[in-house]
Amino acid sequence: MRRFLERVWRLYYPEKATKDPSHQDVPLQLERLLHKTIQKVSEDLEQMHPNTAVSAMMIFINEATRIGFLPESMKSPFVRLLAPFAPHLAEEFWETIGGKGSIALARWPEFDVEMTLDKEIEIPVQINGKMRGTIMARAGASENEARQVAEEAEHLRKYLEGFEIAKVIFKTDRMLNFVVRPPKKED
Q: Does 3.40.50.2300 match the CATH number of domain 2-115?
């Protein structure tokens, strides 16, 4: 937990002055992740699952650290998520970003449901039960759509060429499995 809080500290108080992050474009991926984090932490706190709530915040901070900054527009919502877990530190951050009053009295951040939905998802592809790669497909794609994407994927073609597809097992947004066998020999 200490290393996590140190990473958060470095995002709120960067040691080296970079370009003003408030004027940089906020990566859409990070914005989506913030909304997913708000949703996850809110649900986990309601269900009394603090460990998974902290885990979701760690994932968000790791991504912000990877891009190198935490945009100003995301500092307020994140610090409000952090407050139940690290109240003294959150209060310090709250004052730094110009929050009014105590963070304990601040409104809980709200998430945009549209931002939490994935437009495209990664689906693992198995061939005869063995993981052979992944494909990117539209969320909620049908079996035919996912199958077409997989059959056209260069990295999967070598496992499918020259074989007959005996069966396809598909779980929407979860996995695609081809059961293949050598083609029948003609006498």
A: no
